[in-house]
């Protein structure tokens, strides 16, 4: 990995001494990056898509930085180790930038902590670069009850570089009917063998669900889709099956796949994937306990690789087809959502998965979570219905990523 530091140093300090003066920081950085120290007058030599930030090497550079701020990648990040009055200069520079309506943050602290911040910042930078040009397939249309989860295709492309591709359901139906039982029988038996139990669903239900998976998977290949959201309820009348198994297997394969044509949620799942490498669990908030700051979330599909075990069930609302009841282990989780019609808002909270629940009046995969932030966010200022659950604590890097897009945090 390359890191280009655009350096600002007072004329009172010799450029030849730059590395030696800040050697402790640079040596630690070089454990992870190939370091390039570039004078601000030579910014043109840095590759266009390279990872870069400003390095404030001393005091006395405040006016120079404010005159040259357009050379810096936005949002502006100032790296400073505090030597040669560099922290004082950085504070003045950041305040000036904020007074002009620009976002600016300072990376400073112990050497180890600064490098950790740089690594998190780079993780967000790399994810942003990877997200650009991704294609999300909208298979069918958003469910009519998702009245607050729309996305403006043009604004989303301008903000994130994501392209939405509308795919008529008829294309899926046509492929579905072309697939024979012999084409998917072996895969269905392998899947059934991995389940710890089958509480509902017949062999015929499983074959139908597997045919749908193959049809959607073919669509992804033909149209070069990086993620999909499926109008799953419209499948039930036409095909007599649900999309729960198809979405589960796609997520297992690293293709973010969401339910109900929810555009904001599938963008969130795609962001989670490129940022953390994980498949997310798209879930409905079902029950809130504000006294314990806990929430139960549930849905009828989850990546089987995200679960320790899974049970084959039928779909909760319709009692048809195949769905997945995943059993997850206790531990740290992150709950997140990217919202707004132009994807300019987000929510993120750490949490702890306490237990798997088994309410009869909720979707099949259910978990109780103790929130790290006030649970009344969901009743006071929510970003819609569905939220995405990730295993582990990813709060810092999600914040870092969203700030690169100048998104507003909702709490």
Explain what the structure shows:
The chain has 411 residues and is α/β, with parallel strands linked by helices. It has two domains: 2-131, Rossmann fold; 135-409, L-fucose Isomerase, Chain A, domain 2 (3-Layer(aba) Sandwich), CATH 3.40.275.10. The chain has helices at residues 18-21, 23-29, 62-67, 86-99, 111-131, 153-160, 169-178, 181-194, 203-222, 233-239, 244-252, 263-276, 377-380, 395-404; strands at residues 2-8, 34-39, 52-56, 76-79, 104-107, 135-139, 163-167, 197-198, 227-230, 257-259, 281-289, 294-299, 309-313, 323-327, 331-339, 345-356, 365-371, 387-391, 408-409. The protein has a six-stranded antiparallel barrel with strand order 11-12-17-16-15-18. The longest helix has 21 residues, at 111-131. It is elongated, with a radius of gyration of 24 Å.
What characteristics describe this protein?
alpha/beta; Rossmann fold; 2 domains; six-stranded antiparallel β-barrel; 14 helices; 19 strands
List the helices and strands and how they pair.
Layout: E1 2-8, H1 18-21, H2 23-29, E2 34-39, E3 52-56, H3 62-67, E4 76-79, H4 86-99, E5 104-107, H5 111-131, E6 135-139, H6 153-160, E7 163-167, H7 169-178, H8 181-194, E8 197-198, H9 203-222, E9 227-230, H10 233-239, H11 244-252, E10 257-259, H12 263-276, E11 281-289, E12 294-299, E13 309-313, E14 323-327, E15 331-339, E16 345-356, E17 365-371, H13 377-380, E18 387-391, H14 395-404, E19 408-409
Parallel strand pairs: 1-2, 1-3, 3-4, 4-5, 6-7, 6-9, 8-13, 9-10, 16-19
Antiparallel strand pairs: 11-12, 11-18, 12-17, 13-14, 15-16, 15-18, 16-17
Helix pairs in contact: 2-5, 5-12, 5-14, 7-9, 8-9, 9-11
């Amino acid at each position: 990995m390359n890191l280009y530091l655009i350096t600002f140093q007072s004329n009172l300090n010799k450029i030849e001494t730059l590395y030696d003066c800040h050697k402790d920081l640079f040596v630690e950085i070089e454990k992870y990056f190939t370091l390039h120290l570039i004078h601000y007058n030579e910014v043109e030599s840095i590759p266009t898509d390279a990872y870069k930030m400003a390095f404030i090497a001393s005091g006395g550079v405040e006016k120079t930085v404010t005159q040259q701020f357009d050379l810096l990648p936005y949002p502006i990040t100032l790296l400073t180790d505090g030597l040669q009055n560099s922290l004082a200069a950085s504070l003045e520079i950041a305040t000036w930038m904020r007074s002009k309506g620009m976002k600016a943050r300072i990376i400073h602290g112990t050497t180890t902590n600064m490098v950790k911040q740089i690594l998190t910042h780079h993780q967000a930078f790399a994810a942003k670069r990877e997200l650009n040009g991704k294609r999300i397939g909208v298979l069918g249309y958003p469910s009519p009850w998702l009245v607050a989860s729309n996305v403006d295709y043009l604004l989303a492309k301008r903000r994130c570089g994501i392209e939405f591709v509308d795919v008529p359901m008829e294309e899926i139906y046509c492929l579905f009917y072309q697939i024979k039982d012999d084409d998917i029988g072996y895969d269905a038996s392998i899947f059934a063998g991995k389940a710890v139990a089958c509480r509902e669903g017949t062999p015929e239900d499983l074959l139908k669900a597997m045919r749908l998976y193959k049809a959607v998977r073919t669509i992804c290949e033909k149209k070069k889709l990086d993620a999909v959201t499926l109008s799953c309820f419209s499948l039930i009348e036409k095909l007599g099956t649900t999309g729960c198994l198809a979405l589960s297997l796609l997520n297992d394969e690293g293709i973010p796949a969401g339910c109900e044509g929810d555009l904001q949620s599938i963008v969130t799942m795609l962001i989670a994937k490129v940022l953390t490498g994980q498949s997310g669990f798209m879930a409905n908030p079902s029950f809130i306990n504000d006294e314990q700051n806990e929430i139960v979330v549930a849905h009828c599909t989850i990546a089987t690789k995200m679960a320790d075990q899974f049970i084959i069930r039928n779909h909760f609302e319709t009692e048809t087809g195949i769905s997945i009841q995943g059993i997850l282990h206790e531990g740290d989780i992150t709950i997140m959502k990217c919202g707004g019609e132009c994807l300019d808002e987000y929510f993120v909270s750490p949490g702890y998965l306490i237990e798997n629940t088994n309410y009869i009046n909720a979707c099949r995969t259910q978990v109780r979570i103790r929130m790290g932030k006030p649970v009344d966010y969901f009743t006071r200022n929510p970003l819609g219905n569905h939220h995405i659950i990730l295993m582990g604590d990813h709060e810092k890097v999600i914040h870092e990523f969203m700030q690169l897009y100048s998104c507003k945090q909702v709490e």
